[in-house]
Amino acid sequence: MKFLFFSEIPTSSGGGFKISPLKCRNGRPRTQVQHLMQIDLRGWLLNYSPSFQYHSLLQIQNCVAGLREYFSQTDETHITPRIPVMENMVDTSAVQKDDKKSTEEVDSKTKTADRGQADSKNMGIIDEETDEDEDYQVPEANIEEDPNKDAKRADEPPEKIDLSCFSGILRCDADEKSRNCWTVPDSKLFKVRSKNFPHDKSKIPAASYLMELAAIDWFKDSKRMDNVGRQKGCVAQVAAEKGMHTFVANIQIPGSTHYSLVMYFVTKSLKKGSLLQRFFDGDDEFRNSRLKLIPSVPKGSWIVRQSVGSTPCLLGKAVDCSYVRGAGYLEVDVDIGSSAVANGVLGLVFGVVTTLVVDMAFLIQANTYEELPEQVIGAARLAHVEPAAAIVPQDLTPPPPALADDDNAAASSSEDDHLSKKTN
Fold first, then answer.
1. Which of 346, 414, 257, 275 is nearest to 4 (CA)?
2. Beta-sheet strand order (sheet of 3-6)
3. What total of structural domains would you count in the chain?
4. Is 88 contained in some domain?
5. Would you say residue 409 lies in a domain?
6. Looking at the structure, do residues 67 and 192 belong to the same domain, yes or no?
7. Cα–Cα distance for residue pair 84/61, rounded to 1 Å
8. Where is the composition biased (Acidic residues) (predicted)?
9. What span, in angstroms and rounded, lies between the C-alpha atoms of 352 and 118?
10. Residues 296-344: tens digit of each pLDDT
C-alpha cells in the first residue's frame, strides 16, 4: 500500500510524497518516504545556459536528499543519501563536458544501489519487493522437486472460444484513442514468478491467459452493487447456459453515485486439480491468500502512473473482498472504499479517468513448485472510460425473502378457503 500526499511545486508539472510501509526492524515500524518531482526545464529563462539549469536541478534534489539523511540519522541508521536520476529532463548533448562527467558519477552510484531490482521508466528509485515475494517459503515436501519440470502442469491455456455471443456496455476496440472501450493487452507485459523463483526471486513475462475476456460492463447506482453475475442475460448467465465457466471481477467504486466495473473472463472447462479449479471451488480464506492484481497505467499523467505503479497486490490483504460461487461462475466483489489508501489512489485516478489507459491483470499466486511458473487468469486494458457512460443495472434487486414452512402452510390454507368460497 502507498500513502500519497500531493503538493504544489511551482517549477514542476507534478509532485508529491509517496510513503510506503516497510517491514519492522527490531520491533520498530519503518516507512519509506519518496518525494516525487517532475520538473520541466523549458520554464527557465532562455538566457540561462544548460549547465546552470542542470546545476540548479541538482541543488534542488540535494535539499530533498538532506531530509533523507536527517531521518536516517534520527533512526540510528547511516544510509548514504542518493539522488534519483530523472530521465528526459535534460538534453545531455547541450551540457558541458564537466557536467557530463558529474552526471556519469551520479548515474553509476544510482545503478549500483538499484542493481538486482526492476527497471523504472520514470525514476531511479524502485519500490521494494512485495511482502508476499519476500515471505515466500518453499514447502518442505516439495523442496527436492525439480524446479525446471513443467510436463505435469495442471493449468494450460484454454481452447479458443467464440465470443460473438457475449456483449457488454463497453465495446471492444483495439484503438486506444477511442472512448469507453477495452481490449486485451499482451500477456507478456505482466511479470510473474518463474520456475526458479524460490531460489533467485526471478520473474518472467506471463504466458497465455487461462481465461478469455468476453465483455465488460460499466454500472452505476445509488447503492453498492453486489453479485452482478446473477443478472439475467449477463455474460455469466449466458456462459453457464453453454456449459462454460466465468470469473467475474466486480471492482466497486464508492461515492455519492456507486460505480461497478465488471469484467467477465470465460473458459470452456476447469481441469480437475488445477490451481484455477481449486481457486473456483476453494474457501474464501484460500481465495484471499491467492488472488492478486497487477495494475498499470500505460498512458496517463506522470503523477498518476507513479501513484498506481505496477507492483502485484494481494487483493484480500489490501481491501475487503467478498466471493459468490454461483451456478457456473465465481464472482469477487472488490470494495475499494474499504481501504483509505486504495480509496485515496482511486480518487486521484477517477478524477482523470477519461484521459487514462489502464491495465488490470488478475492471477492466482503460486506457492509450490507444481504451481510455478505463475499464470495470469486474464487481463483487460480500458481506454478513456467516462462515468457518464455507466448505466443502471436491471434485475439486481434482491429477491423477496422466502416464506417459512408455517407461513407457506398458512398461505396455502388461505388460498384453499378462498377457492372453496368462490366455488360455493
1. 346
2. 3-6, 12-25, 28-39
3. 2
4. no
5. no
6. no
7. 8
8. 126-145
9. 28
10. 999 998 888 888 888 899 999 999 999 999 999 999 999 998 988 787 7
